[in-house]
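Field reference: "sequence" (input) and "structure" (output). Example, UPF0102 protein F2Q65_04480:
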Amino acid sequence: MTAPRRTTPGQTGDAKEALARRFLEQQGLQHVAHNVRCRLGEIDLVMRDAQTLVFVEVRYRRSERFGGAAASVDWRKQRKLSAAARYFLQRRQIDLPCRFDVVAITAGDHIDWIKHAFEGAVT
């Protein structure tokens, strides 16, 4: 008899990013890219909201203990996201207004979408 398989943190993260993507698409945003990685950092989702490019950080926490999902996007993470966004824009030669959003997901898949969550230098 084998033990039940446990979900790895990577599998959980992928599932929550897929949930966030579906949610944002239902709100009218269009998917551009996901899991954009470079040596400077990673961007979970890149979406388009009309003529604005949106860099989305997806955070999941089972509880609100220690500030919850949104609070975990501290200044260090913001700096990495800004650097990765600059890299993405330069590589793709995109010249659109940009913003940084956070999709915070808590237990029961409650979604809190924070538009303009922080200012990032992308130019």
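Helices lie at 9-26, 68-71, 75-92.
Strands lie at 30-38, 41-49, 52-61, 98-106, 110-118.
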